[in-house]
Amino acid sequence: MKVTLLTVTYNSENYLEECINSVIAQTHPDIEHIIVDAASTDGTLEIIRKYNGHIAQWVSEKDNGMYDAINKGITMATGGIIGILNSDDKLAAPDVISDIVHCFTDQHVDAVYGDLVYVEKKNTSRVLRYWKGFSYKRYRFNYGWMPAHPTFYVRTSLIAELGGYESHYYTAADYEFMARYLYRFRINARYLPKLIVKMRSGGQSNKTLAIRLRANRRDYLAMKKNKIPFPLAASILKPIIKLHQYYYTFFRKNI
């Protein structure tokens, strides 16, 4: 089964090469890596051209933000499964994609997600936070739970049916996407207890309290849209329930 990995870039020269090499290292034989660049002005395009033989398709042009670029990449995808790999992240091991594919084929599911670690920018062996997943239970959305989006893989055929990312939710667009698929439309999902992605710290949605509050408001709107009960309470609980991640971090300092 072909897997499409979408990577969105903008002035991503610092870590893009490591991201691409983590895809090249995968043991699964059928991976389509698509890069959607927002007209970078640094050395990003030189890196893309360097690995042109390993990249199925790429485009460089202005867009309306990250999720608009992801939607653009989705229209280019030919794989039966789609996942997102951020330009400063990397797949955690060479067998990640093969294990995801086995989960899809052996368990006949519509979506798969797993574990993620936030790591130090310069030293990806140093774990800052461990996002440990749970087995999928739809009711978990009632108190603000969500899978780690960079580990979320879904069948491409469903996107044509249920729609892509709604970019007007800004940093909450990934949450809205998963809430729509998993909660509102009840697709069949499985948790793969495996470290999928090493994600460098420094996400846009948590830089300041004002940004976090604005993101929390968009989470609330996404919950309301997708008919999650008591969306205000769930949006308040959403950041609080992530505190358990630090428990796993304490016991897993090096990955």
Provide keyphrases for this structure.
nine-stranded mixed sheet, Spore Coat Polysaccharide Biosynthesis Protein SpsA, Chain A, single chain, 255 residues, 9 helices, alpha/beta
Q: In words, what does this structure look like?
A:
With 255 residues, the protein is of the alpha/beta class. The chain has one domain (3-251): Spore Coat Polysaccharide Biosynthesis Protein SpsA, Chain A (Alpha-Beta Complex). 36% of the residues lie in helices and 21% in strands. The chain contains 9 helices and 9 strands. It has helices at residues 16-24, 44-50, 66-76, 96-107, 156-162, 173-184, 209-225, 231-240, 245-251; strands spanning 3-9, 31-37, 57-60, 81-84, 89-91, 111-119, 127-131, 153-155, 189-200. Strands 1, 2, 3, 4, 5, 6, 7, 8 and 9 form a 9-stranded mixed sheet that branches. A hairpin with a 7-residue loop joins strand 6 (111-119) and strand 7. The longest helix is centred in the last third of the chain and has 17 residues, at 209-225.
Quick gist of this model?
The protein is an alpha/beta fold and 255 residues long. It has helices spanning 16-24, 44-50, 66-76, 96-107, 156-162, 173-184, 209-225, 231-240, 245-251; strands at 3-9, 31-37, 57-60, 81-84, 89-91, 111-119, 127-131, 153-155, 189-200.
